[in-house]
Design goal:
- Chain C: Belongs to the ABC transporter superfamily.
- The complex is a heterotrimer of chains A (818), B (361) and C (217).
- With 818 residues, chain A is α+β, with helices and mostly antiparallel strands.
- Chain A has four domains: 196 residues, no CATH class; 160 residues, no CATH class; 255 residues, no CATH class; 160 residues, no CATH class.
- Chain A contains 23 helices and 22 strands.
- In chain A, helix 1 packs across helix 9 and helix 8 runs antiparallel to helix 21.
- The radius of gyration of chain A is 33 Å and the shape is elongated.
- In chain B, strands 1, 2, 3, 4, 5, 6, 7, 8, 9, 10, 11, 12 and 13 form a 13-stranded antiparallel sheet that branches.
- Chain C has a single domain, classed as Rossmann fold, CATH 3.40.50.
- Chain C has seven helices and ten strands.
- In chain C, the strands form two sheets. A six-stranded mixed sheet of chain C has the order 6-7-8-3-9-10, with helices on both faces. In chain C, strands 2-1-4-5 form a four-stranded antiparallel sheet, with helices on one face.
- In chain C, strand 4 and strand 5 form a beta hairpin.
- In chain C, helix 3 runs parallel beside helix 5, helix 4 packs antiparallel against helix 5 and helix 5 packs parallel to helix 6.
- The longest helix of chain C has 18 residues.
- Classes of the chains: A alpha+beta (818), B mainly beta (361), C alpha/beta (217).
- Chains A and B meet through helix 3, helix 4 and helix 6 of A and strand 4 of B.
Chain lengths: 818, 361, 217
């Protein structure tokens, strides 16, 4: 033990003499761990939130009985099933408007609630009585409490007082939990329930049909929550970026460890000569590496925590905007996250050091003359790598052809990038050989030839640069494409000039009556939305009034002739792109939509884009909607108003009906809000993008630093034959820039290919919409500049050292070189 | 003190029913027992009982139960026990309301016991919607699929014939109960004193049932016959705060004589013994408050608790000196408030069978 | 104390076996100093490396005191070097990131044979007292080789092996360093086997052995 400590101290003494090298190694490990664990923290945070939502009183984790038509049903069915031995618990779900905002109200029955549904621990902790005894209690998550007021307060909805608020930490945000009896009163649905949760308790019970006839059907629990399924793509995206940053970080670690190993070779030999056995030395080398990785891992975790905390608001905004998922803004991490972070740091360090460690293990005590066949070996290696690249490209092509899932989409991306990275050295080799052939002056020929010789040392860093650039181009193009499409779409979609949301149907009527007397109001466009389900998944039914505003502006992707006219009778509908892709619906198909009065048969006459909506949607004539879904709130309306009268009208409405900003908005504000939400959606991607590029820059810098030391012997002869140090430095800089430029030029088409994959494969699978593909040349030029700037910065330090190097140091090369 | 242990059955189980879903804050609930009688009807001596009306619920009182235990045996003579219980508790004074606002909570317990196995189950329900209730005419008490129901030619004085059903994942019971004589008022003409500080309940029993039917344990049906005993009790008065638990016997003596006997234990170690001696013709007399004794003989350890499962009972004035042994010492009811309840045998001056319940251990 | 019998060793190079040692017999007694000389390629360095256990012989036997070196595995040979041998090379082979003081104690520390008094004496005799806190790169060649000799002798080895220890030093320094080494060898009573191509330096030792074409001439 003592002996090992002595050897460890000797090994560590190297870092004391080379602090920059140690810093590089640690930076690599820290950035790899930080980005990886930061992304993991975000994913974990989201997953906890989904679990909360899924477990909130019968999310998708619980088996349940629902009405065949998706409507509510009488609670006598609950009693009949209990009396037949079924371990069921009733639940009523609805929405309430509080201060113009919509909340999900869940009525539960705590006494029969299956214990595994959980999440209602406070109910029953002596508080059962106050929960079920009028006025009862309304349980909300802490986040929701902040929106609604203080504990004990009673918010108002539609003129009635809701039960006093009580906070319960485990609840999903946005849900209001009350006793079922109280919920029936609030929602004015006496004796009705939405579904029956089925407990796991096994008791003999009668067949479902013998009790409930064909009124109810059993929905089996799914291990994956709805939110998890919906948000998979988003987290896959985050994970992919985390992984990319992690690998780029490992490039740094690899070059730092490689350098340190080369420099310590004589030391290792001396140790062996002084009687340290190979096994002992290897063990201590691993111990040293693991200790460093441990330290770096812990620092990386702390950094990862801060990265996650900094990105969390954007991630939460993205998830809310895209999927309606509520993620708490406070980061809470499980112990397993810390362990996993340290473990990934250690594993990463070991992987990055594998080559060096293998060399150390095989190292003979006596230095023997190296065969000078490296050039041949390099060529063979290049050919092998290129062959592998072609194989990987073939796999990518096969995946594009046959793959039909999100995973396949990401696999295509991964294969593309891996293949491109593998083939990069060959591309550079060919480009440099071409340069060499076209050179005339001897220094020119040396310039190209020496660049080629440098390739093997630089290729890892250049691969990192290639990947970072390609991903940047790809993601940048996707975001820009999205932005452009979204803006055009928004203009059509937000066609009315003013949007009003009344607090109640009654108020809506009063507002409409008042508006009719206002001459500046050109049209009142009522709107409404009902919830139902199609093919087992929830969908929205949107009611559109028959008005020129919609006919002229509402953007349709595909439609039959006279689609708007055909909507009028109420037997046709438009479907959103997401829904049409998910259920493979096309124009002319017929669907049956469950409605309270029975199924509603509809023919599809058009498909429209509905970006950013997690739910499938169909659009029907508004009047038909109110006939089929009589309980649809009539509180929303859009107004056409002469442009110069918008502001005064809003002010007048606000004053007359006590509406605030949440209830009334003009088109411009709606657009700004929507754009803001969508910009946030991609801000996380952009941030991770920047991190990745930064890490790639560091990788390039460390590689060049590593090379700079070993290159002195190659530069010294040139200096000796009369090239000035300044000239040599300039040539060195030029060489680095040249290979970086070739790499960046190669990255551009690769990036566009990545963008195409994201738009045509990943987005379609993940979100259900396909965006048109645009190329943005300015953006590409910008990235080229960034890449060259990164290469310049990375090359500047070693080159500056070379320019300032004392002649004595160059002379010493000749003395030491044997 | 094992808080939850104090609460079951005759122990004003209903008083704790409101806590059934948690149990953690029992202490608070226990303290609550002392107060919540307010607004409910009081138990006073001299109440005239009327049947079948009194078979039904008394919602003006806080707590109430319908309690049946049966000592059974199969054709080969192997002994079994069965329990079927429905508890009612009002969470709030002032008559039951319609629908979910009803404020009545119901709890059902069922169990079967053999020498080798003991199976139990529990279930809960809110009143007002039909998931659980009791109707007096015709007598029908139910919670979920468990049921106690008067059959054709039901005699309200005999509380018979009855049909009893309960089923759970790993057992079920279906019994028919017949009786050829009238029910019996316990305590002093149905007024049963629980302490010298006014705690009391209304209490009557039908100890003369002949039972027959079938019990199923792990899908293995057994046809059984035997005797059964029903207890009906209701009250608003909580148990005195210093009473920690009790040991309760219902014994079928030779010659159709019956003995109901219980000991209430206090924190300070003192105890009170109450009981009624019932003659074959249905006359019921309170046993004397002093001179009698019950004492543990051997204990069994279950779930880390020590339970006296064998007892020595001595009523010198009645010439009774017996020792009881359990059919299955592990007859532990691991329900939301756990307790011990199971069939016993006894020998000595008298020999026979019966049921024992122990709480607060 | 050191007995080498019938040692052979050949290397494979360019598809051809080249026999470097072809049956070498050699003995060094306790307290004896022996110079091993011969022209380039005579196999003298190879012989030294084999004795040090840095490489394995093809056949023959090397015995150090009661240990047969050729029977040991890698760990055993490392232990032998650590505990019973001192090695000095032409290239000094100091650890550049350790100070002179740390370099000096290094081998005795890992051998667990650190002797403070002997250490002080070594520092004194080698004249390193004022240099203890320097790093090897701040020392002259002669100073570096003195540190290497100190490191090799610190664990009081049975045998000091030196491979052209003065090859990188000028003549005056070489004489001075070798004199110091001989002194200390005498002081510890260990054996001393030095490879040198200099007849002048070889003559200063007790006995001279010349290797020619892989056998003792």
């Amino acid at each position: 033990m003592r002996r090992a400590l002595w050897i460890l101290a000797v090994l560590l003494s190297h870092w004391r003499r080379h602090p920059m090298q140690l810093a590089t190694l640690l930076i690599g490990l820290i950035s790899a761990t930080a980005l990886w664990s930061g992304v993991q923290a975000l994913n974990q945070q989201a997953r906890i939130a989904y679990d909360r939502a899924a477990a909130t009183f019968g999310g998708s984790r619980t088996a349940m009985l629902v009405a065949r038509d998706g409507a509510t049903f009488p609670q006598t069915l609950f009693v009949d099933l209990r009396r037949a031995g079924w371990p069921v618990s009733p639940m009523l779900e609805g929405r309430v408007q509080i201060d113009g905002r919509s909340f999900r109200l869940l009525g539960v029955e705590p006494v029969t609630l299956p214990s595994e549904v959980g999440n209602a621990p406070a109910v029953g902790r002596g508080s059962l009585q106050s929960f079920i005894t009028p006025p009862g209690e309304m349980l909300v998550a802490p986040e929701t409490l902040r929106d609604l007021g203080k504990e004990g307060e009673r918010p108002e909805a539609n003129g009635t007082s809701l039960p006093p608020l009580r906070v319960q930490a485990e609840l999903a945000p946005g849900a209001l939990i009350v006793d079922i009896g109280i919920a029936q009163d609030i929602l004015k649905m006496p004796g009705q329930v939405s579904r029956l949760l089925v407990g796991k308790a096994k008791a003999p019970h009668a067949a479902l049909e013998s009790v409930a006839g064909d009124k109810l059907r059993l929905v089996e629990p799914s291990a994956e929550s709805d939110l998890e399924r919906l948000t998979d793509s988003f987290h896959l995206n985050l994970t992919a970026f985390g992984l990319l940053s992690f690998f780029v970080g490992l490039f740094i670690v690899n070059s730092a460890i490689g350098l340190a190993f080369e420099q310590r070779l004589p030391m290792l030999r001396t140790l062996r000569a002084c009687g340290v056995s190979a096994r002992m030395l290897n063990t201590v080398l691993v111990i040293e590496l693991v200790s460093l990785a441990l330290v770096a891992g812990l620092v990386g975790l702390v950094c990862g925590y801060f990265i996650a905390a900094a990105l969390l608001p954007d991630v939460a905004a993205s998830l809310r905007g895209l999927y309606g998922a509520q993620i708490p803004g406070q980061l809470s991490l499980k112990p397993v996250w810390w362990f996993a972070g340290v473990a990934i740091s250690i594993l990463g360090a070991l992987a990055a050091a594998a080559a060096s460690l293998a060399k150390a293990i095989r190292m003979p005590v006596l230095a023997t003359a190296q065969p000078q066949a490296w050039q041949q070996a390099q060529r063979r290696w290049l050919l092998l790598q290129s062959a592998a690249a072609l194989a990987v490209f073939a796999v990518a092509a096969g995946l594009i052809w046959f793959g039909d899932s999100l995973i396949a989409g990401f696999a295509v991306l991964a294969a593309l990038m891996l293949g491109a990275a593998l083939i990069l050295p060959m591309v550079l080799q060919v480009a440099l050989a071409f340069g060499q052939r076209s050179a005339r002056a001897p220094v020119g020929i040396w310039f190209w030839a020496d660049s080629r010789q440098q390739l093997s040392g630089l290729s890892l860093a250049l691969m990192a640069l290639l990947l970072a650039l390609a991903v940047n181009v790809g993601v940048g193009t996707m975001v820009e494409s999205f932005n452009r499409t979204f803006l055009v779409w928004l203009d059509g979609r937000l066609a009315a000039d003013v949007y009003v949301s009344a607090a109640s149907d009654q108020q809506a009527k009063e507002i409409k009556a008042w508006l009719r007397d206002q001459p500046e109001v050109q049209a009142i466009l009522p709107g409404g939305r009902a919830d139902t389900q199609l093919g087992g998944a929830p969908i929205e039914v949107l009611g559109l009034p028959d008005h020129a505003t919609y006919r002229d502006n509402w953007p349709l992707l595909e439609n039959v002739a006279n689609a708007w006219v055909r909507l009028r009778p109420g037997d046709t509908c438009l479907v959103s792109e997401q829904l049409s892709r998910r259920m493979k619906l096309a124009i002319g198909d017929h669907i049956e939509v469950p409605a309270p009065g029975g199924n509603w048969p509809l023919e599809i006459v058009g498909i429209y884009a509905d970006y950013g909506n997690p739910k499938g949607q169909i659009a029907v004539n508004f009047a038909a909607l109110t006939r089929r879904f009589p309980q649809t709130p009539m509180t929303r309306m859009g107004l056409r108003v002469a442009p110069d009268k918008i502001a005064p009208l809003i002010t007048a409405l606000q004053e007359k009906f006590g509406l605030d900003d949440r209830n009334i908005a003009d088109q411009a504000r709606m657009k700004t809000e929507s754009k803001r939400v969508f910009n946030r959606t991609f801000s996380v991607t952009a941030a991770l993008n920047a991190f990745t590029l930064g890490v790639a820059g560091i990788a390039l810098l460390t590689s060049l630093l590593t090379l700079a030391n070993s290159r002195l012997p190659q530069l010294a002869p040139l200096w000796a034959i009369g090239l000035t140090r300044r000239r040599l430095a300039a040539l060195e800089l030029l060489k680095t820039m040249a290979v970086a430029l070739i790499t960046a030029l190669f990255a551009l088409p690769l990036g566009l290919l990545v963008a195409w994959c994201l738009l045509a494969i990943v987005n379609v699978k993940a979100f259900g919409w396909r965006l048109p593909f645009h190329v943005f040349p300015l953006q590409l030029i910008e990235l080229l500049a960034v890449a060259l700037a990164a290469a310049f910065c990375a090359a500047a330090l070693p080159v500056a050292r070379l320019a300032r190097m004392q002649p004595a140091s160059l002379i010493r090369i000749f003395v030491n070189e044997r | 003190m094992s808080a939850s242990g104090t609460i079951t059955r005759r122990a004003f189980a209903g008083g704790a029913l409101g806590l059934a879903l948690g149990g953690k804050t029992f202490a608070q609930g226990f303290a609550g027992l002392g107060e919540t009688a307010e607004g409910f009807a009081a138990v006073t001596p001299g109440k005239p009982f009327t049947f079948p009306a009194d078979h039904g619920p008394h919602p003006e009182f806080r707590i109430e139960w319908w309690y049946v235990t049966a000592n059974l045996s199969d054709t080969s003579g192997a002994a079994y026990g069965a329990q079927w219980t429905l508890f009612r508790q009002a969470m709030k004074a002032g008559g039951p309301a319609e629908g979910w606002a009803n404020q009545q909570l119901w709890m059902g317990h069922a169990a079967v016991t053999s020498a080798g196995t003991h199976r139990f189950s529990e279930t809960f329900a809110r009143g007002g919607v039909g998931q659980a209730a009791v109707e007096a005419t015709p007598l029908r008490a139910w919670i979920d699929a468990w049921e106690l129901r008067g059959r054709d030619a039901f005699d309200a004085q005999h509380v018979a014939p009855l049909e009893l059903k309960a089923s759970a994942a790993d057992f079920s019971t279906a019994l028919r109960l017949e009786a050829d004589r009238a029910l019996v008022l316990q305590g002093d003409h149905g007024y049963s004193r629980k302490s010298d500080r006014g705690q009391a309940s209304y209490y009557y029993s039908q100890p003369f049932y002949k039972a027959s039917g079938r019990i199923v344990i792990d899908d293995r049906p057994v046809d059984v016959t035997g005797v059964a005993w029903m207890d009906r009790e209701w009250s608003s008065q909580p148990l005195a705060a210093d009473q920690t638990g009790w040991d309760w016997f219902s014994l079928h003596l030779p010659g159709e004589e019956k003995l109901m006997l219980y000991r209430l234990r206090q924190k300070d170690g003192r105890e009170n013994l109450f009981g009624n001696w019932i003659t074959p013709d249905g006359r019921s007399a309170e046993i004397a408050a002093s001179g009698n004794s019950i004492a543990p003989v051997t204990t069994t350890e279950i779930d880390g608790r020590k339970l006296p499962t064998s007892w020595r009972v001595s009523l010198p004035a009645r010439g009774l000196a017996i020792e009881t042994t359990p059919l299955n010492p592990k007859a532990w009811m691991g329900t939301s408030f756990p307790y011990w309840e199971g069939p016993i045998r006894f020998a000595g001056s008298h020999a026979g069978i019966g049921y024992l319940e122990m709480t607060g251990y | 104390m050191l007995r080498v019998t019938g040692l052979t060793k050949s290397y494979r190079s360019a598809g051809e076996d080249i026999a470097v040692l072809r049956g070498v017999d050699l003995a060094v007694a306790t307290g004896e100093s022996v110079a091993l000389s011969g022209e380039s390629g005579s196999g003298k360095s190879t012989l030294l490396h084999l004795i040090a256990g840095l490489d394995a012989a093809d056949s023959g036997e090397i015995a150090l005191a009661d240990t047969v070196v050729s029977h040991l595995n890698d760990a055993g040979r490392a232990e032998l070097r650590r505990d019973r041998l001192g090695l000095v090379f032409q290239q000094f082979n100091l650890i550049p990131s350790l100070t002179v003081a740390d370099n000096l104690v290094f081998q005795s520390r890992i051998a667990g044979r650190h002797d403070a008094a002997w250490h002080d004496e070594l520092v004194e005799r080698l004249g390193l007292k004022s240099l203890l806190r320097r790093y090897p790169e701040q020392l002259s060649g002669g100073q570096q080789q003195r540190v290497a000799i100190g490191r090799a002798l610190a664990p009081k080895p049975l045998l000091l092996l030196a491979d052209e220890p003065t090859g990188n030093l000028d003549e005056d320094t070489a004489d001075e360093v070798l004199a110091l080494a001989r002194d200390l060898v005498t002081r510890t009573g260990c054996g001393f086997l030095m490879v040198t191509h200099s007849a002048r330096l070889a003559a200063t030792l007790d006995r001279q052995v010349t290797l020619h074409a892989g056998i003792v001439a």
